Amino acid sequence: xxxxxxxxxxxxxxxxxxxxxxxxxxxxxxxxxxxxxxxxxxxxxxxxxxxxxxxxxxxxxxxxxxxxxxxxxxxxxxxxxxxxxxxxxxxxxxxxxxxxxxxxxxxxxxxxxxxxxxxxxxxxxxxxxxxxxxxxxxxxxxxxxxxxxxxxxxxxxxxxxxxxxxxxxxxxxxxxxxxxxxxxxxxxxxxxxxxxxxxxxxxxxxxxxxxxxxxxxxxxxxxxxxxxxxxxxxxxxxxxxxxx
Length: 244
Ligand SMILES: C[S@@+](CC[C@H](N)C(=O)[O-])C[C@H]1O[C@@H](n2cnc3c(N)ncnc32)[C@H](O)[C@@H]1O
Fold this sequence. Notes:
The chain has 10 helices and 7 strands. By secondary structure, the protein is of the alpha/beta class. The protein has a single domain, classed as Rossmann fold, CATH 3.40.50.150. Bound molecules: S-adenosylmethionine.
C-alpha cells in the first residue's frame, strides 16, 4: 500500500500545488497545528520533524516558528519533496514509520495531513515516540469529511470498500497508545469548487476510488461532485500529545 501511496503523490504534485495556491488549506492546517504544538510543548521546539512534508507548505510554517533551529522534512514521495525549500536543510526521502533520527533527537513530530495515509498509524506513532524520547510533543491532523449545510456527509453514498481504510478515529487512537493526547475538530467553510479541486488531486481521489487508475479515479470524483453546490464544511481532526 505504501508504494501505491508514494506513486499517487508522485503523480499529484501539480494538482496539489494548484489546490494549495488557491486555498492555502495545508498551510492553514500547519499553522493551527504549530500553535497547538507550541502551546503543549514543555520547552522550545528546536528540532521539528515535518513527517509527511509533501511540497513543503507545512515545512515553511514550522521553520518560521520562534526558536526553531531545524526542520527535518520527511516524505516517501521524492517528487513532492522536490518543491520543498531547502533553507532548513536537505529534505529526506523516508517512511514516517521509520523516522531517520536518533532516539530522542526531536522536540516535535508533526504529521500535517499524513498519518491517515499509512496502513497502520500505530507504527508511525511508535516511531514518533522514539524520535521524541521522554520529552517533546507530537501532533497530527486528519480529514473528518465534508458536510453539506443540510448536515449530510457528501460521500456517505459511497460503498465502504471504495473509501480510504484509515480514518481520523484510528489516527487519534494510535497516538493515544503512545501519548497523553488532547484533540478537537477544525471546521472550514468551503465552496463546492474547493471540494472538486481537492478531489482533482489524484492522491485525494484515491481515497474515494482506490482501485481505479489515476485519470479514471479523478474523472469518477469529478462526475460524483459535478452537481454539488453551495457551501460545504470541511472538517479536520487535530490531535496533540506529550509522552506518557
Ligand atoms: C496531504 S500531503 C501533506 C503534505 C504536507 N504536510 C502539507 O501540509 O502540505 C501528505 C504527504 O504524506 C506523504 N506520505 C504518505 N505516506 C507516507 C509515508 N509512509 N512516509 C512518508 N510520507 C508519507 C505523501 O507522500 C504526501 O506528500
